[in-house]
Specification:
The protein is 24% helix and 25% strand. The strands form six sheets. A five-stranded antiparallel sheet has the order 6-7-12-10-11, with helices on one face. Strands 1-2-5-3 form a four-stranded mixed sheet. The chain is globular and about 60 Å long. It has eight helices and 20 strands. The protein is an alpha+beta fold and 372 residues long. The protein has three domains: 87 residues, Uridine Diphospho-n-acetylenolpyruvylglucosamine Reductase, domain 2 (2-Layer Sandwich); 150 residues, Uridine Diphospho-n-acetylenolpyruvylglucosamine Reductase, domain 3; 110 residues, Uridine Diphospho-n-acetylenolpyruvylglucosamine Reductase, domain 1, CATH 3.90.78. Helix 4 crosses helix 5. It binds flavin-adenine dinucleotide. The site of flavin-adenine dinucleotide has 33 residues, from strand 3, strand 8, strand 12 and strand 13.
Length: 372
């Protein structure tokens, strides 16, 4: 159940207002020292994994939620254009310059907040690099995040699309999310059970889209080994390495990913560009009758998930390009910047692919990437 009317949790034990927010706003003199940095007319080229050229009117980097609150309070009355949040830019395609203010979390704290036998609660700032967090879990012998190794981005973005890979999703370990409401400037904590998590989806992409900034995430991890090796390729790779330890699982995931996905530092991309479509059983049966061996997975409500990469490949797009935008030659789910592509080049290729898949299979695939 999502707690929409009052927006934030009132029905579970999670406190709606973290105690530290009851403190007074910190001293203005400390405000611009280290906690908040304002950058004007900034290039976004090195701040988005597609590597497309664009600029932002303003980026506000903050490493602490209280100083962000003060910054927004001080500037509330000014018209500063659109307000949005930029993490690592690994799931955003800029189709033009960004006219407004991008809030960018930089805080890097990770801390254990409670231990209860086997269970360990950990709080991480939104600005922590996701794989640094997973590596921290490994170093501390904590299970739960290891299958999500090497997903590029920040901790604060993980709940937004409920990142997932190799049979695990962020929702499995997210206890609660600390955030700041950008309209009311009220901080709050929302329990994981009220985040509306689904396949690459959450309340942060729905009712709360554009309305909040996530400032920290609380995780629920375990000291007891819980290897999840449901993916055959992962199980085989771990077996090659030895026991299913945290280190071996992380190494196996990293190896498999490196073989399938282009490195954004070399070839601009945002991982999977499209979501896998979830269709009625009858639709899946119709396509499978024409294409025996069609891969598919059971999804919620008796529906069927068909890999979008397979549909795009069968439609003949794998390895094809339109100018400087292309469909990756090793994984058709990934669109790539072959060098110098604009956001418009990439969206226009995406639209062609979507239309062609719809024409050939009668299924519409949707973008997973946020197109701005
Ligand atoms: C090579 C590659 C592989 C990938 N593999 C996977 C994968 O296996 N599984 C998977 O799920 N994803 C994958 N992705 C997508 C991406 O890594 C995730 O979506 C990641 O969470 C993006 O993090 P980010 O910090 O870069 O977010 P951004 O791209 O900066 O932002 C993404 C969205 O989240 C919002 N957002 C970001 N931070 C906050 C915040 N603090 N508060 C509120 N909103 C916020 C933004 O406004 C935007 O709407 C991959 C991407 C690449 C480039």
């Amino acid at each position: 159940m999502a707690c929409l009317p009052s927006m934030f949790c009132t029905t579970c034990s999670t406190p709606t207002i973290p105690t530290h927010y009851s403190d007074k706003i910190p001293n203005f003199a400390t405000f611009y020292d280290a906690m908040v940095q304002e950058l004007l007319n900034i290039s976004l080229k090195g701040r988005n994994s597609f590597g497309v050229n664009a600029t932002a009117d303003r980026i506000v980097e903050f490493d602490d939620d209280a100083s962000l609150l003060e910054y927004l309070t001080v500037h509330k009355a000014e018209n500063r254009g659109r307000l949005a949040v930029l993490g690592g830019g690994n799931n955003i395609l800029f189709t033009g310059d960004f006219h407004g203010t991008l809030l960018h979390p930089t805080g890097g704290k990770i801390a254990v907040t409670a231990e209860n036998g086997d269970l360990v609660s950990v709080r991480a700032d939104a600005g922590v690099d996701w794989d640094t967090f997973v590596g921290w879990c490994e170093s501390n012998g904590l299970w739960g995040a290891e299958n999500l190794t090497a997903i590029p981005g920040t901790v604060g973005a993980a709940p937004v699309q409920n990142i997932g890979a190799y049979g695990a999703e962020a929702k499995d370990i997210i206890d609660s999310v600390e955030l700041l409401d950008l309209e009311t400037l009220k901080p709050a904590t929302i329990a994981g059970c009220h985040c509306g998590f689904g396949y690459r989806d959450s309340i942060f992409k729905g009712a709360l889209k554009g309305r909040i900034v996530i400032t920290a995430v609380h995780f629920r991890l375990s000291r007891t080994p819980q290897p999840r090796l449901g993916y055959a390729a992962l199980e085989d790779k771990v077996a090659e390495l030895g026991e299913p330890t945290l280190t071996n699982i992380r190494t196996a995931v990293r190896t498999i990913r490196d073989g399938k996905l282009p490195d954004p530092a070399v070839t601009g991309n945002a991982g999977s560009f499209f979501k896998n479509p979830v269709v009625e059983n009858a639709t899946a049966e119709r396509i499978a009758a024409e294409y025996p061996g069609m891969p598919s997975f059971p999804a919620a409500e008796g529906k069927i998930k068909i890999p979008a990469g397979w549909l795009i490949e069968k439609a003949g797009w794998k390895g094809h390009s339109r100018g400087k935008a292309g469909v990756y030659e090793r994984q058709a789910l990934v669109l790539v910047n072959l060098g110098g592509a604009t956001g418009a080049d990439i969206t226009s290729l995406a639209e062609e692919v979507i239309a062609d898949v719809e024409r050939k299979f009668g299924i519409r695939i949707d973008a997973e990437v946020n197109i701005w």
